[in-house]
Amino acid sequence: MFLERYEIIFAPGQREVTGHEIILASDSRELSDHGTPMFPCGAYIVDLSRFGGGILPWHHHEIVSGAAGSVLQQHNVRPLISCGTLAWIPLRSENAWELEALKSFKKAHDACGAEEFGYELAVREGLSRIWLLIVQNMKTALEREKQERPADTGRIKAMLGYLYRHYREPLTIRDIAAAANVGERECLSCFAEAIGAPPMLYLLKYRVSVSACLLAETDTPIIEICGLTGFDDPSYFSKSFKRFLGVTPSGYRKKYGSDHRNTR
């Protein structure tokens, strides 16, 4: 999803997010607690520029999908979150349905924050409206995915899953391709079709995204974050970080780190 000039990539499959943690079940349902047990939904404002590549996994909540195995989940939620050809969905105010979705986001967020009588229904209405708009307008891609490339969906999910689990380690295209039992050329083709970027660029953006969270949410020394996120060269880490975020790791921490948040 793109919001204004910031990019969030909702990628299929499961991954670990350090800092802003999203813990998923095998069916891509989020397990992290939000709101209350009776109404597990929370409203948050996040500066999207803090994520660089902004890589977040496709995931869903029962507030939209209903109980596991429900018709809503099977017919409307699962096909979308497992669609390998929808690596991201742009939402821009220039397009009518995308603008409507953005307004529904704000409506749900405001209702959740106000907690006025009946707000739970308003939140669910807004979120369901967003999902309906996406499903309706992504119908062609969803049908094509189902009919034409079922094998590629499994392959890209396997490769992304491997990447998310092993991003801290030295990785090559061969390593990523082996996760799906395909050759390097097929790996490149799958990423081009589903993600729109080569696997090593995607990996680089993912590492920068995780490092940004660590810089903002922890006091871990920058040199340690470099190693924790798969960079073996501090100079290359700094160069890559600035490439995607426009600022050095130290400058980013100064702007978004815990000391900055506590003084606002």
Oligomer type: single chain
Rg from alpha-carbon coordinates: 19 Å
Helical content class: 55-70%
Order of helices and strands: EEEEHHHHHHHHHHHHH
Q: How far apart are the termini?
A: 28 Å
Biggest sheet strand line-up:
1-2
Classify the beta-strand content into a percent band.
under 5%
Task: Round the mean pLDDT to the nearest integer and report it.
Answer: 76
What does this protein look like?
The protein has 264 residues and is mainly α. It has a domain at 2-147. 56% of the residues lie in helices and 4% in strands. The chain has 13 helices and 4 strands. The chain has helices at 62-65, 71-81, 96-114, 119-137, 139-148, 150-166, 173-178, 184-194, 199-217, 222-228, 234-245, 249-256, 258-262, and strands at residues 2-3, 6-7, 9-11, 55-57. The strands form 2 sheets. Strands 1-2 form a two-stranded antiparallel sheet. Strands 3-4 form a two-stranded parallel sheet. Strand 1 and strand 2 (6-7) form a beta hairpin. Helix 6 packs across helix 8 (184-194) and helix 9 crosses helix 12 (249-256). The radius of gyration is 19 Å and the shape is globular. The two termini are 28 Å apart.
Keywords:
single chain; mainly alpha; 264 residues; two-stranded antiparallel ribbon; two-stranded parallel sheet; disordered N terminus
Helix-strand layout with pairing:
Blueprint: E1 2-3, E2 6-7, E3 9-11, E4 55-57, H1 62-65, H2 71-81, H3 96-114, H4 119-137, H5 139-148, H6 150-166, H7 173-178, H8 184-194, H9 199-217, H10 222-228, H11 234-245, H12 249-256, H13 258-262
Helix pairs in contact: 3-4, 6-8, 9-11, 9-12
